[in-house]
Amino acid sequence: MARAVLPNPKRELRPGMFVMAHLKGALRPNAVVVPRFSVQQGSHGHVVYVIKPDDTAEIRPVVIGDYEGDKDIVILTGLQAGDRVVVDGALKVVPGQPVKIVASGAGNDKAIAKPVAAAQE
Question: What does DSSP assign to residue 97?
């Protein structure tokens, strides 16, 4: 909820009336944004599974920020630009085990990392 004071010379707005307003927040240049379903709640905070260069998974703690649109979330710390994260099948991923990258469907250009065992089914 936000509160604003604005001029009302024609007295079209009355006390107690509500308006629908779209507010734009602060800009974050070079922010790291990931699909919100890639962020998991761990026992010590939020984590994501990151795909290392050898195509194995590791758990990495992250600090989350605001939601970006309907499907993404800003990562404040814990990830860097270019890190590959598991988006789908995170419940089957085992840290240290290999994962297979599978391109997602529906024209989406993001990659989805799935565990090797799930990809072979």
Answer: S
